[in-house]
Amino acid sequence: MRRLTLIFAISLSVLCCVSPVSGENRLLVREVHGLECRATEPAYEFLLGHLAFSAALFGRLYPPLKDYSVSQPNPRRIRVIDQHWGLDGEADLLAEQRGKRIYRSEIGVTLTETWQLSAPLEIVLEYRQARADPLVVSRLAFYLMPPPTLPSVMAQAAAQLLIPLIDRQVQAVTEGSRRGCDRITSDPAGLYREMVAWPEIAKTDLAAYHRLFLTPLR
Question: Taking the CA of residue 151 as centre, how many other CA atoms within 13 Å lie in the half-sphere pointing to its CB?
């Protein structure tokens, strides 16, 4: 698995007299509540199930995401590339059920000149259909899972380093998904006619989109 590598220098003096992080606990790095997408739950799950399609759509509708792409080497693994911010990594889908997805990625963080932390980052997405249909409200939580021998001060420092990266990605993807959901909900046929001419949209994804959003309208 590719690792997302970040650079952060910490003086060796902070290693003195600090306690390790328990391997039984996940360290909550960031939690984001109240993310809204104006779509039905089936439409939202379509976007989750066709991530390459979603990334291409969001990039078209929200220019800051135009260098953001997602591919799936296999059904349980996704690869994310963001050329603008230099992000290149993979994540595995650990669990999938209605209203919830759990992903895990390996994170590499350089803590000192001679010591690099390698640890899993777990991403939990929970979502539900709100009473105001169509509207899906979601929650994201990011957990760092450091090794049990890592001093807590180092784990906290690594978590602090990840926060700006997480916030930047969440902000961009949230805006892209908001615009994508709006178009799918308000004008699915018009959006389809536009997407036919977009080379980055796979024909299999176009066919799946047509079956879900347009075929019942006939």
Answer: 14
Tell me the helices (H) and strands (E) count for the chain, helix number first.
5, 8
Q: What number of other Cβ atoms are within 10 A of residue 5's Cβ? A: 15
Among residues of the chain, what percentage have pLDDT more than 70? Answer: 81
CA separation for the pair 15, 115 (Å, rounded): 12
Helix 203-213 to helix 188-195 angle, to the nearest 10 degrees? 170
- What pLDDT does residue 55 have? 94
4-210 CATH fold: Alpha-D-Glucose-1,6-Bisphosphate; Chain A, domain 4 (3.30.530)
- The continuous run of DSSP H or E covering 17 comes out as none
For residues 152 and 164, give the distance between their C-alpha atoms in angstroms, rounded to a whole number.
Answer: 20
Residue type, 87: L
Burial of 12 (0-12, 13-18, 19+ CB in 10 A): exposed
Closest by CA to 64, choosing from 78, 37, 91, 85, is 85
Give the Cα separation of 36 and 161 in Å (integer).
Answer: 26
User: 86: alpha, beta or left, given left = phi > 0 and alpha = psi -120 to 50?
Assistant: left
Rounded (10°) CA dihedral 36, 34, 108, 162: 120
pLDDT category at 217 given cuts 50, 70, 90 is: low
* 63 in Cβ contact with 84 (< 8 Å): no
Query: In this structure, are residues 175 and 182 in contact, taking their beta carbons and an 8 Å threshold?
Result: no
- Residue 50 identity: H
Query: Which H or E run includes 193?
Result: helix 188-195
